[in-house]
Amino acid sequence: MLRFELGRILYHIEIGTHTFMNMENVGARPIRKVQRKSSTGELHQIWDAISYWTSDSMRQQPTQERIHSFLKARYGITEVESVNAMLMRCLDDQLLLRETKQGTRGKLLGKMVEIHTIPTSLQKSDGWDWYCAICHDVGIVTGCVSCHRVYHNDCLPDQYKSDNLKCPTCTEIEDELSSKNHNLENLNKCIGFVCERVKLFVPENLLLRKVPVGLFQKSVSYQDFEVEPYREVLIFYEQMSVGKMARKAQNREYKTLAEFVADANTLFHNVQVFHHGNNQFPAPTLKPMQRTLMHDADELKNCLQCFLYSNEQPENWYCLPCDPPHTLVYAKQKGYCYWPAKVIKKNEEGRKVKYDVRFFGPPYERALIEEAFIKPITTPVSSLSLKRTAKLNSALDELENHMNQLNMSKSTVPVAPKNSVVDNATASPPKKRLKTAKQQEKVPKPAAPKKEVAVAVPVVEQLAEEPAVVDAKEEEEKTEPELPVEADMPPELDANRNSVTSSDSRKVVMEESSEDAVSSSNATNGEVSNANAECLEQLRQKHAVEVAKMQQAHAEEIKKLKEEHRLQAEVMKEQHRVAIEETKAKIWCCQCFGEAILYCCWQTAYCSKECQHRHWMSDHKLKCRRSR
């Protein structure tokens, strides 16, 4: 007991230099302080000792001597001063309680002894974490003025070192709140996809501890142990898990992406604090999880909509435009030709500039391409010397679809004002007139003499060249005046009248001849269509007869094959039965399991004298039933 008190006094003298720094201003919230003195490795060792002595199998009081014997046997801690210092640090952190009780068993029966117990909860908290958020260790830390995170002064970057510390996490959250306005529904939906993906390869409990088994034994083996609930309560300031992050995303509690990254870092911080100093720490499990979460967070920073489309995968999801849209380029990877792609991010590493691109066409691969192998999308395809393949054609089709959707999203549909000059009644005739002209152009030309056709074509052209819009007043002005009667016509215009009537008669004759030609061509077309229909019907009947014959032949062939298969199966069954009977009738060697020819005693036979000698020398001479 005297040695224990002496160790306590020396310990307080050792840490007395830190006591003044714990409180800069009395009655005010401290900025720099020693949050905890005991590491989690020491805590686990002390708690393991107390749990061992108070278990149902031992039922002993955890005194200092028994705790020391446990640590010496399981963890190899032999020095009493080291054990005393560990106990002092745990007591100062209020992670152990010391009580004086009367002994109940053994040599301590009836004596007053000091025992150590584990508290089930913390008495109070000052609003800050106990471990550095970067190195996850104890010591003199500086607390953030906006959150619960603390940092060592050596762990912080230079730009964050100040009396009123605002940590990098809070700074990033505030910058993102002020600069970006994400769609909260899409953001939380993407975070839910990330959590579901991480759950596929992360174990349910990241806090399983591997501890040595076999107390007071020379051989040491490790075994997984479930974590008691009090350990999480006493070690973690904020408990976090993948399921909790998924529930927050489902309830749309994340306002920015930086909040999700902060929760992920809290999860990694808790796991590393819990296993700090343990060589059996499950690092191979945590590192892939951390890598996946950080990679997906970077992808969400690059483009939220691309990540959402790639997980939901609607129809033609890669052709859907993002807001803001990506830069489109032709990128060339080594061993491939130029390929259409979207620029996801531009990486500048010193003088080298590389583009992080994602190519069109399945499987939508990513690559880092140097600036020399990037060409703008306006480059003519003919100058790229592309080798047209099915995959390249598919990628170019997707590029065209994407550009069309971009143009549709950028263009606005014009809406005419109420007092618009455009009238439906005046705007519709041009469409009808043009339509009739096109229909007349598509009419098949009649088989008429060349002269008549040469005269008829300009009529269609003249009709198509007439003005489309005609005002009602202009129609009244352009109406043909009434011709004078023949008796009123002067004699000098009589010749002109005769010429006009002759030209009119010629036009009528040509129009009648063209109509006759059209009717004759229609008649011939009708006869041809009837003949084609009769021929098609004959071919259909012939095809139906041939199909019926092939189906009948196929059914007969199947029936024949089934019968042959049945006969072969019966023959094989008979051969198999005979082979089984012959095998049962044989006797096998007890040494090499070959066919036996030499018999010794009951159910004992050999294939040769060598096997008999070996079997006899092994153990058969003691078990042989043959009468001697």
TrEMBL record:
Alphabetical keyword list: Bromodomain, Chromatin regulator, Coiled coil, Metal-binding, Nucleus, Phosphoprotein, Zinc, Zinc-finger
**Which Gene3D superfamilies does the UniProt entry name for this protein?**
2.30.30.140, Bromodomain-like (1.20.920.10), Zinc/RING finger domain, C3HC4 (zinc finger) (3.30.40.10)
Which positions fall inside the SAMD1-like winged helix (WH) domain?
Answer: 36-113
* Bias type Basic and acidic residues, positions: 438-449
Q: Which SUPFAM superfamilies match?
A: Bromodomain (SSF47370), HIT/MYND zinc finger-like (SSF144232), RING/U-box (SSF57850), Tudor/PWWP/MBT (SSF63748)
Q: Which GO terms describe its biological process?
A: chromatin organization; regulation of signal transduction; regulation of transcription elongation by RNA polymerase II
Ranges where the record places region Disordered = 412-449, 467-527
| Annotated Pfam families | Bromodomain, MYND_ZMYND11_ZMYD8, PWWP
Domain MYND-type span(s) in chain numbering? 589-624
Q: In which compartments does the protein localize?
A: Nucleus
Q: Which positions fall inside the PWWP domain?
A: 325-380
- Residue spans of biased composition, Polar residues class: 516-527
| Compositionally biased tracts (Acidic residues) | 477-491
Q: Which InterPro entries match?
A: Bromodomain, Bromodomain-like_sf, MYND_ZMYND11_ZMYD8, PWWP_BS69, PWWP_dom, SAMD1-like_WH, ZMY11, Znf_MYND
Q: Can you list the GO cellular component terms from the UniProt entry? A: nucleus
Protein name, UniProt field: Zinc finger MYND domain-containing protein 11
What is the native source organism of this protein?
Cloeon dipterum
